[in-house]
Amino acid sequence: MNWKNRLRCDETAAWPLLQAHARTFRQDASSFDLRTAFAEDDQRFERFSQDAPYVFADLSKNLIDDRAQQLLLQLARECGFEAHREALLTGEPINTAEQRAAWHTLLREPYAPGQETASTSIRAEVAASLADMLNFADAVRADSRITDVVNIGIGGSDLGPRMAAQTLRTAGATSGPRVHFVANGDGHEISELLPSLKAASTLFIVVSKTFGTAETLANAKAARQWFLADGGSDVARHFVGVTCNTSAAGEFGISRVFSIWDWVGGRYSLWSAVGLSLAVAMGSAGFRALLAGAHAMDQHFANAPLETNLPLRLALLDIWQCDFLGLSSRCVAPYHHGLRRLPAYLQQLEMESNGKGVDAHGRRLAFPTAPVVWGEAGSNGQHAFFQLLHQGPGVTPVEFIAVREPAHSLQAQHRTLLANALAQARALMIGQSSDCGHRHFPGNRPSTFLLLERMDPASLGALLALYEHRVFSSGSLWGINSFDQWGVELGKTIATDLAPRLTSGDTAGLDASTAGLLKRLGGS
Ligand SMILES: O=P(O)(O)OC[C@H]1O[C@H](O)[C@H](O)[C@@H](O)[C@@H]1O
User: Fold this and answer.
1) Are 171 and 456 in contact (CB under 8 A)?
2) Protein residue closest via CA to atom 2 of ligand 1
3) N or C: which end of the chain has fewer CB within 10 A?
4) Could you give the CA distance from residue 414 to residue 430 in angstroms, rounded to a whole number?
5) Is residue 126 in some structural domain?
6) Which residues participate directly in catalysis (predicted)?
């Protein structure tokens, strides 16, 4: 099957079979129960868990059985998933709305000069661009005059590098200058940071694929104004840019520009020069290790049989939960302090990619797509919202992420943390019967457990690539284009219209609520 003619999940023969099968999972006494499933099958853990590069995954505590798993695999095959995956990995224009590839996997593919293929020149270009970016990053690290680096960007130009830098700092894999991130259009964020800096020892990296994002341009202007006021004179040396739009960066006064390709989607761009601040934080060797870890996961995704292909298995579980069990949210609980921004990163990756109500041809979808992703680092979440997960009226699947080896020496404390992650997953599943209502835990609540041996650049690269491919896989089967984001545009257009009205007080044509609020907010 050609990827362009692939089927949508609800057009397959597997779809109605899955619907029928899902009825046996309804929440009543005769339905599927995890406790019974484990009691009746001593191989359940082995069959619903697996290794993938750098990641071990246990899916066995989910509300899924062999028949559901087989039907979901049938659904993937019927949809033409393998052809679509091939198109992703070979740079076909799968972002059909914008007629371009989504070829982030190329950014982490090792390049050996002399390999003659049709795409040799783009591979050579990618390798040269990476070397240029990493040389610059190492030079910044070696320059004792630079003590602080500020990444100015938002969305995909912030979330990935910020989360990865934070994770690897906690893991002890960063050194060199302090790296800060400014994203928010709210001027409080940059205003809080700037007074702690000195113009002469600060490097600003302005990251924007389009170089047209209002928040980033406003923060970059504020930074330049502060830089000049603080006695800085050499804007060209202290401001560099990362963008597709080199001319707009030039107009801003930035001469040192690291360019990226239009086939690198914002939320998939961490691996490109968008990761410059991260490369400054960990050096070229660390950045290359991150790419190598991601590439190992790419290879797994490309070659592992569908039955043991972890990104696909997680995507099938998402589809099963979302479309057949009616579970519309997923809690991510990373039991690693460094991963505390992972839920925010995944919110963009998953919800901006797959939060669509139409398919790639613009046809309305009659089934739900991306679940709401939310979460907080463990064990913090246990003392906040886990109450709802254990005893709330609805069911929310939880995804635990744990790292076996800590980067600190508090071994006993780490064992307690791991015990807590295990305990929460087990408590959700086994529950506890009590005649006293508020002490009753229904149990049979699903969770997935992802386990890393240690947190280092390669493991993080693999984990993030796993999530990217999972999102591609579910999006592919839902029939949607995971690589556009038209849903963010309307609000931007309206904000452009409203901004001058806050000063003029003009409310013509506005609804009464917006007009009333505008009058209260205006004039400052
Ligand atoms: O990198 P930029 O062009 O500044 O875009 C930054 C972000 O803003 C957009 O509105 C999109 O929602 C994001 O996908 C993107 O990552």
Assistant:
1) yes
2) 208
3) C
4) 24
5) yes
6) 352 (proton donor), 383, 492
Q: Any catalytic annotation for residue 104?
A: no
Instruction: Tell me if 483 is assigned to some domain.
Output: no
Q: Is the CB of 485 under 6 A from ligand 1?
A: yes
Q: Got the DSSP string for 440-505?
A: -B-----EEEEEEEE-SHHHHHHHHHHHHHHHHHHHHHHT--TT--GGGHHHHHHHHHHHHHHHH-
Beta strands in 208-322 (DSSP E): 239-243, 256-259
C-beta of residue 521 within 8 angstroms of C-beta of residue 507: no
Question: What is the residue with the minimal CA distance to atom 11 of ligand 1?
Answer: 155
**Does the ipTM exceed 0.95?**
yes
Residue 231 DSSP SS3: coil
Q: Which domain holds residue 343?
A: 3-22+32-78+304-476
Name the pairing type of β-strands 148-152 and 256-259.
unpaired
Check whether residue 494 and residue 467 sit in a common domain.
no
pLDDT tens per residue across all 524 residues of the chain: 899 999 999 999 999 999 999 998 876 667 899 999 999 999 999 999 999 999 999 999 999 999 999 999 999 999 999 999 999 999 999 999 999 999 999 999 998 877 666 667 899 999 999 999 999 999 999 999 999 999 999 999 999 999 999 999 999 999 999 999 999 999 999 999 999 999 999 999 999 999 999 999 999 999 999 999 999 999 999 999 999 999 999 999 999 999 999 999 999 999 999 999 999 999 999 999 999 999 999 999 999 999 999 999 999 999 999 999 999 999 999 999 999 999 999 999 999 999 999 999 999 999 999 999 999 999 999 999 999 999 999 999 999 999 999 999 999 999 999 999 999 999 999 999 999 989 999 999 999 999 999 999 999 999 999 999 999 999 999 999 999 999 999 999 999 999 999 999 999 999 999 999 999 999 75
CA separation, residue 160 to residues 19, 207, 277, 366 (Å): 36, 12, 11, 32
Task: Decide whether any atom of ligand 1 lies within 6 Å of the 162 Cβ.
Answer: no
Give the CATH number, domain containing residue 63: 3.40.50.10490
